[in-house]
Amino acid sequence: MTPIQYRAAQPSDAAPIGRLHADSWRRHYRGAYSDDYLDGDVGEERTVVWTERLSHPGADHYTIVAERDGLILGFAHTRLDEDLTWGALLDNLHVSFELKRQGVGRVLMAETALVLGQRRPTGGLYLWVLKQNTAAQAFYSAQGGECVEETIRGPFPGGGTAPSLRYAWSDPSRLLGKQPAT
Question: Which of 65, 75, 132, 140 shows a CA-CA span of 20 to 30 A to 179?
Fold first, then answer.
């Protein structure tokens, strides 16, 4: 089997990232996002969002994809300098459902930390996770993330709010040791 490659996202990745993003939301965000929204054209809407993001690269954000044989299997999108206290926001981390628990998310986080270390060597990293998503919380804890805050967030796309938890890494370089041996 061809190994998974990790690289910077390109504009041509927008549609597969949009589909993966929509699939992940449909599987994990029910109850927080409206069913009408999730069952509608969320894939098309996410593709529009990703087309815009990837068509305008900038110094304030970056996206890394996991790819095998031309298929996008996961992605991580980070926005730099998002919070004065917590640092960069890992705004999206999604892995193909079929590859969960195989190390793809762990490597995406390590790759995120590597780029962050190059661009903001002294900055922290944080993300928001829905309180209902206990599997993601366990993953972030296993990656050394600390739950530092709980709040109600929203409105989300399609409407709705939900309890959410902030996970933070004051030293994201600790994620670099989380990569599996190759």
Answer: 132
Strands of the sheet with 71-83, listed across from one edge = 5-8, 61-68, 71-83, 87-95, 125-130, 162-169, 146-153
Q: Distance (Å, rounded) from C-alpha 91 to C-alpha 104? A: 17
> Which CATH code is given to the segment(s) 5-178?
3.40.630.30
CA nearest neighbour of 72 among 83, 63, 84: 63
Reported as a pLDDT band with limits 50, 70 and 90, residue 78 is very high
Cα–Cα distance for residue pair 109/72, rounded to 1 Å = 16
Domain boundaries, the chain: 5-178
pTM: 0.93
Buried b (16+ CB within 10 A) or exposed e, 142-170: ebbbeeeeeeebeebbbebebebbbbbbe
